[in-house]
Amino acid sequence: MAVRHVLVRRPPEAVWAVLSDGSRYAEWVVGTAETREADPGWPRVGSQIQYSVRLGLCTLHNRTVVRVCEPPGRLELEALAGPLGTARIAIQVEPWGEGETLVVVDEHPLRGPGSRMHVAPVELLIQVRHRKMLARLARVVEQDG
């Protein structure tokens, strides 16, 4: 399981405002080239966001479904990556001190080949991706302030 965290210098409501805006997904999610469409009501449970991922000359069209939504503290997503399977991404948003927020992301493969290849090198790649993703999220939220 890949678990990472970041301290954001803004309150939880500011973090949630970015997480709950489907049109901003590509601004903070590493690997997402563009958001194609977010269901109305994102991040309501069952709503989806569709996006493109570019790997060299190849463009993949993936989607993510909201499985749990408890504003402003908890968002759990299932990323559907076609033949690679799915991953569970849990995001915790916790107040931390005065006007700051601790954001914790916990991701692991859930279904498909990815769930059987959950080994140290894959874990390392997810950790690196999360470090970049959380830094982007913090930057986006703090710039909005």
From TrEMBL:
CDD domains the UniProt entry points to: SRPBCC
Pfam families: Polyketide_cyc2 (PF10604)
Origin superkingdom: Bacteria
Name of the protein described by the UniProt record: SRPBCC family protein
